[in-house]
Amino acid sequence: MPVESPEDRTVEVLGVAEALDEELLSLYFENKRSGGGPLVSVEKRGNRAIVVFEQAEAAAEVLSKQHHVLNNIQLNVRKAATKDQHRLLLRGINPSTSTEMIELYVENMMGLNVTDYTLCPLPGRDFILIHLSRPFSKGLLIPCFSKT
Q: According to the lineage, what is the superkingdom (predicted)?
């Protein structure tokens, strides 16, 4: 049996009510009514949830259904975004900030050298795409703020 990637087994659910708990979401997506099946995990993040199935076939079946309604609320289900571990999007940049300042920020926050990345700024926009020479990992980031 071929190994299925986590991306093939994962769906993103939008429009999740705050009061809806993960257990009810789990029960719905494990039920054949949703087209789903056994789950690995459900993680609620505000008004959306990430659902990971044991089999890609269950995720595909859920995605093929047009309507998902739970507690009289229409849920929007879509394929979860794929993650490119060589790219990061830096948002909220003042368009007048110099490239040199952004480079210093990236190098200091991520502990990188100038040869470890490439910046791809878009003129007049508040974001910059960062191409990394090695895959991104959570340990790569240095926290910039701490709560005291």
A: Eukaryota
